[in-house]
Design a protein that fits this description.
The protein has two domains: 1-57, Homeodomain-like (Arc Repressor Mutant, subunit A), CATH 1.10.10; 59-191, Tetracycline Repressor, domain 2. The model has no long low-confidence stretch (mean pLDDT 90). It is mainly α. 74% of the residues lie in helices and 0% in strands.
Length: 191
């Protein structure tokens, strides 16, 4: 098969897959998880049910794939913030605030959907990548003396993630920013 033809088919498959993911997410957000069927997804996406089943075995599988793509985008955004120019403390602040805002928005998915999406191997991998990203920033920032060095960076990274997960239950983005400020205060050297 010619290379151009192969690339065109692969691009078409990605477009169809993305359309299925986006359509399913929109339907679930509008109607709820229990109300969405594969037939609805196929119709709204503009494909046949047989084609839909070639991509996914059910609604939950589509949502898990949507979540994987979503998490990958979040990790890429956090890595972009980490890699910006500037001092490590500023980059750490930016990453922690962005993570807290992600947790804040995640908290508004609802319990049933949250339970479905926040399990599985892709979540475990993403969590470890997140800990590594924050640990590395903490290590870099600690070298300036602005952060405590009496607790290992791995433990501080875990502290940050656990503390900022509370953003999911906060009422506003202002409250989220206050939580980030308090979390960062816990990273300062003891007096």
């Amino acid at each position: 098969m010619p290379k151009l033809w192969h690339e065109t088919i692969a691009a078409h498959r990605r477009e169809v897959r993305d359309a299925i993911l986006d359509t399913t997410w929109a339907l679930v957000a509008e109607h709820g998880l229990a109300a969405v069927t594969m037939s609805q997804i196929a119709e709204e996406t503009g494909i046949g049910r047989a084609t839909l089943y070639k991509y996914f075995r059910g609604v939950e599988a589509i949502l898990v794939a949507w979540h994987e793509r979503h998490v990958t985008g979040h990790l890429a955004h956090l890595a972009e913030l980490r890699d910006r120019a500037g001092d490590a403390g500023e980059r750490l602040d930016a990453v922690l605030e962005a993570y807290a805002l992600i947790a804040y928005h995640r908290g508004h998915h609802g319990a049933e959907l949250g339970t479905l999406l926040h399990q599985g191997e892709h979540v475990v991998r993403a969590q470890q990548q997140l800990i590594d990203l924050i640990r590395d920033l903490l290590t870099e920032a600690a070298e300036t003396g602005d952060l405590r060095d009496d607790v290992p960076p791995e433990e501080l990274a875990s502290y940050c993630l656990h503390a900022l997960t509370a953003a999911g239950s906060l009422p506003s983005t202002d409250a989220v920013r206050r939580l980030v400020t308090v979390t960062l205060a816990g990273l300062r050297p003891p007096r």
